[in-house]
Specification:
- The chain is about 40% helix and about 15% strand.
- It is α/β, with parallel strands linked by helices.
- The model has no long low-confidence stretch (mean pLDDT about 95).
- Bound molecules: pyridoxal-5'-phosphate.
- The site of pyridoxal-5'-phosphate (PLP) has 14 residues, from helix 5.
Length: about 350
C-alpha cells in the first residue's frame, strides 16, 4: 500500500497543534473574544431547509460584502475553506510540479506544507538584519510564485510598504500577499491590488472576526488572477453556515470587530511592555500575538504548560534575525487576549522564569 502513495503526500506529517482541554490557549492566534454576536444569532436561527440545500457555488453575495469591506468595488473576490484553501488553490492554479515558490523564513508554517503537496520547490529568503523582507533577493529568485506575509507569522513584524511594492512591481510571477492580521496593523495594504494584476491579497475570518471554526478565508485582486484561483479551488468549498455567518458579521458587526481588534492592539502593547520589563526580548508586533525569542523558550513553554497556559514553541528557525541568533533559533509565540487572561499568563510566566 505505502508504495502507492504520492511521494509528496507520504512525507508530510499530520498537522499537530499544541493545545489542551481546560487550558488557556494562546497558541494559535485565534480570538479569545469569540465570534461577533450577530453571527452567533444567525447560526442559532438557521433553518433546516437552509442546511439541506447546497450553498451557492462561489458565494456571490458574500463576495460583494467582502468587496465593500476592503473598499475595492472593482476587485474580484474568491472565498475558500479558510485562507489556507486560497493559498493552496493559488499554488495549484499557477505552480506546475517543479516550479519555484519564494518566501521569507521564518514565515507561515502552512506554506512549506502546501508547497510540498503541490510539488513546488520552496526557496527560502532570509530576513534582513533590520527585520524587513529582503525585496531584492525575493525578486532575484525569479519564482513562479512569491509569498509575502505582513504582518508576518510567527514574528508579528510588518514588512515596509516600500519593500512590498518593490516585490509587487518587479517579481516575474504571481505575488501572494497574506494579510491574515490586517485588522491589527496600522498599515493598510489592500489598495496594492490596483498596482498589479499578478497580485492576490489573502485575508481571513479566522483572526479578528473570531470565526476560525467556520473555516472561511478570501483572496482579492484582478479578475484574471481571481478567476484562475477560483477555477483551481473548485465549487462548494464554503458551507452555507460559514457564508451566512460571515455575511451577517460584515453587515452588522464591523464596529464590534473594530473595537475588539483595537482592544487586542492595546493589550498587545501593554503585554509587550510588561514582558520587556521581565527582561525578555519581544519583537515589535503589528498582529494579535507577540514573538519572544529566548534561549529558555523550551523550559518556559513547559513550565507554562504545567500551569495550564499554552503558547506556541518554535524551534529550528533560521538565525538571520539578530534576536534569533541570540536565542539560537528558538522562540515563543504568544496570542493576545482579554486583559484578565493576560494577567493569568503573566503570573504563570513570572513563576516559569524563576524555574527556567
Ligand atoms: C492564521 C493564518 C491564516 C489563516 O488561516 P485560515 O485557513 O484562514 O484559518 C493565514 N495566514 C496566516 C499567516 C495565518 O497566521
Amino acid at each position: 500500500m505505502s508504495d502507492l502513495i504520492r511521494r509528496e503526500v507520504a512525507g508530510l506529517p499530520l498537522y499537530d497543534t499544541d493545545s489542551g482541554a481546560n487550558a488557556i490557549d494562546l497558541s494559535d492566534n485565534t480570538s479569545l473574544w469569540g465570534a461577533p454576536p450577530a453571527a452567533l444569532r444567525v447560526l442559532r436561527e438557521m433553518s433546516s431547509a437552509a442546511i439541506a440545500r447546497y450553498p451557492s457555488s462561489y458565494s456571490s453575495e458574500l463576495q460583494g460584502a467582502i468587496k465593500r469591506y476592503v473598499g475595492l468595488d472593482t476587485a474580484s473576490v474568491v472565498v475558500g475553506c479558510g485562507s489556507d484553501d486560497i493559498l493552496d488553490s493559488t499554488m495549484r492554479a499557477f505552480g506546475s510540479p517543479g516550479d519555484r515558490i519564494a518566501c521569507c523564513s521564518p514565515t507561515f508554517v502552512m506554506i512549506p506544507v502546501f508547497a510540498k503537496l503541490n510539488a513546488l520547490e520552496l526557496s527560502a529568503v532570509p530576513f534582513m538584519p533590520d527585520g524587513d523582507i529582503d525585496a531584492e533577493e525575493l525578486v532575484a529568485r525569479r519564482s513562479k510564485i512569491t509569498y509575502l506575509c505582513s504582518p508576518n507569522n510567527p514574528t508579528g513584524v510588518a514588512a515596509s510598504r516600500a519593500a512590498i511594492e518593490f516585490v509587487v512591481d518587479r517579481a516575474e510571477g504571481v505575488v501572494v500577499l497574506d494579510c491574515a492580521y490586517a485588522e491589527f496593523s496600522s498599515e493598510r495594504l489592500d489598495d496594492l491590488v490596483s498596482r498589479s494584476e499578478r497580485l492576490i491579497i489573502v485575508r481571513t475570518f479566522s483572526k479578528a472576526f473570531g470565526m476560525a471554526g467556520l473555516r472561511l478565508g478570501y483572496g482579492f485582486g484582478s479578475p484574471k488572477i481571481i478567476d484562475a484561483v477560483a477555477r483551481a479551488r473548485g465549487p462548494y468549498k464554503v458551507t452555507r453556515v460559514a457564508e451566512l455567518a460571515a455575511f451577517t458579521a460584515l453587515s452588522e458587526s464591523q464596529e464590534w470587530v473594530r473595537e475588539h481588534a483595537a482592544l487586542a492592539v492595546e493589550n498587545r502593547e501593554r503585554l509587550t511592555r510588561l514582558l520587556r520589563q521581565l527582561g525578555l526580548v519581544v519583537l515589535s508586533s503589528d498582529a494579535n500575538f507577540v514573538f519572544v525569542p529566548t534561549e529558555h523558550a523550551r523550559a518556559i513553554h513547559a513550565a507554562l504548560r504545567a500551569r495550564g497556559v499554552w503558547v506556541r514553541l518554535l524551534s529550528g528557525m533560521p538565525t538571520d534575525l539578530p534576536e534569533l541568533a541570540a536565542s539560537r533559533g528558538v522562540a515563543l509565540r504568544i496570542g493576545v487576549g482579554p486583559w484578565d487572561v493576560m494577567e493569568t499568563l503573566i503570573t504563570a510566566l513570572r513563576e516559569a522564569l524563576e524555574c527556567a
